[in-house]
Amino acid sequence: MTKTDLHAIKLKAFQQPIRCCNVTAIAYGLTALGYPTNIDDIFYVTRLPIDTVLDDGMTLAETYDTCVKYVEEKNLPISVIVEHFDKASMTLESFIQEIERAIYDENDIHILNFNVDIAHEIKLGGGHFSLLADYDKTTQEITIADTNPKRYTRFWKCPAERMYLACIDRDSASDRARGMIVLKKVESNEQKAQDPELMSAI
């Protein structure tokens, strides 16, 4: 049986500090790709102001910038791509096609940024960052590896369409849709960050 991203992710365990799901997701994703990273590493290397993260949170774009800075400072052979879901090309169909491809690619990890209330269909509050771990084509459900297992459990399932709606939700802090960050191993260190508007797989 072909292994999905869930196989690599479940070998690691992360619990976010309060209001640090974004930084935790970066550390979780890099570790799952084979580059052990902890949350303190990211704060230290990027000089990310702790009070800013705790008080204001971070948008998808800010999380992307932090990830790019960390990858560049550590000279990791990782490309970082951000996709806001307010792009016309980011349809439900293209989202499903991407997750179907992604879960079998051991060289990439997808970090989803979504509205918690929509994803869980219950008032839990705000935006959140967690990892895409698996997708069942038969049930059309995705498995999420959560950065806050104490609150949401370590792994939980959600219909792909509902997660798509949670990702196209507009973040009031940025006035843009939420979306995803893709971490992908590359053969060379020449290009760490790619144009956020270019994602050839979609």
Please provide the count of β strands: 8
The spatial strand order of the largest sheet comes to 1-8-2-3-4-5
| Principal-axes shape call | globular
- CATH superfamily, called what? Phytochelatin synthase, N-terminal domain
Helicity, as a percent range: 25-40%
Brief characterization of the structure:
Helix 2 (21-32) crosses helix 3.
Describe the structure.
Pfam families: Phytochelatin. InterPro entries: Papain-like_cys_pep_sf, PCS_N, PCS_N_sf. It is an enzyme of class 2 (transferase). It comes from Amazonocrinis nigriterrae CENA67. This protein is of the alpha+beta class and about 200 residues long. The protein has a single domain (about 5-185), classed as Alpha-Beta Complex (Cathepsin B, Chain A). It is about 40% helix and about 25% strand. It contains nine helices and eight strands. The strands form two sheets. A six-stranded antiparallel β-sheet has the order 1-8-2-3-4-5, with helices on both faces. Strands 6-7 form a two-stranded antiparallel sheet. The longest helix is centred in the first third of the chain and has 15 residues, at about 60-75. Residues about 195-200 have low confidence and may be disordered.
